[in-house]
Amino acid sequence: MTTVTKTGDWRRVRAMLAAGPVRLKAAIAVAMRQEAEALRREIVQGLTRQAPGGSAIAPPKETTLAARRLKGFGGSKSLIVRADLRNGVAAIVRGDEAFVGVPRTARGKDGQSLTKIAEVQEFGSAPIVIPMTDAMRRFVFAMLREAGEPIGGGSGRGVVVVQVPARPFLRPAFEKFKPGAQRRFLARVAALTGMGGA
Question: In this structure, is residue 169 part of a structural domain?
């Protein structure tokens, strides 16, 4: 017959083992939040630096800058006029899932859906035909003068056709962030549970 001798504080060991799953679950939740916030920070800083994920965003055309000035806005960065889009990027963690991007509920200061704006900027748009009103025609001529562009006679059709070019700001950040995500997440969990040095 074999004899087992217990040494040490077994009550403490039992308490640690009982608390293990709760501690691990809490550590996973915190690590998920930290990783999501780090990705959000990458996107926001990428917009500020005009190079999300290291991919430079095309600068705005001179006519776009002229239109901004006529509307009372300054700045020369792409995708940043009032910073609504940049400020609309969120990290939302629910359980074991995280969303990082522009939520459907996000609105700009003018009430416009930031999700729609983000989608158009990320992927570009098809050609948009806009019927010209007299007020729009005056604005276009003023914008062209402000931009130093020649003012032509136009097509005579009474419409303007615009197409928004793709200026991805989410996908490049996701691609940069993806390598090492699993390693970073596990390192965060290990550090939070005190097993980082094991």
Answer: yes
